[in-house]
Predict the 3D structure of the following.
Amino acid sequence: MITIRAEETGVGRTGTTRRRALLATGAAAAAVLTGCSSDTPAGPRTAGTTADPAEAARALRRRLAARSTALLGEYDAVTARHPALTARLAPLRAAVAEHAAALSGSPATAPVPPRPSATATAPAAVAGGSVAEDPAAALRGLAAAERRTSAEHTASLMDAEPELARLLASVAAAGSAHAYLLTKGDAR
């Protein structure tokens, strides 16, 4: 059996015992654990949120759904101006319609794109102006709109509750993929 004298450990000189050291360590650990936990659930992390976090979340969803709906309108404008692109854009447009529906909380319904004859006399308006006459330029403009929408969804991640943040991350990633697919093969 090994015997340790108080003089060898230095414990006896300061009046500190092992029991006191263990109590102090336990109290410090309890204080740290209490300071790191919170009874309030994590919610949106906006600096200027309204008094009602649920209303702030609904407003964020409405704004982001409106942006996706506007992007859907841009797809419709391009297909109205360039009917030959309808088949190429149909799957991407359908995905954007689903994104808008998911963000708004309504069931996904992808309205049929307008008939080319409905807008053949006037250029369709989009966020950046009119749809370009050149199909490749129209696709580049649509890709830019996808990137803007994706960037807006990504920027809103920090303001969203966890479930909406996951949806936004997915929608933003899909938007980036759409932008790539729209410009694939173009020499920049």
Observations:
- Helices lie at 6-9, 11-14, 18-36, 53-81, 86-104, 135-155, 162-183.
- The radius of gyration is 29 Å.
- Residues 53-81 form the longest helix (29 residues).
- Strands lie at 125-126, 129-130.
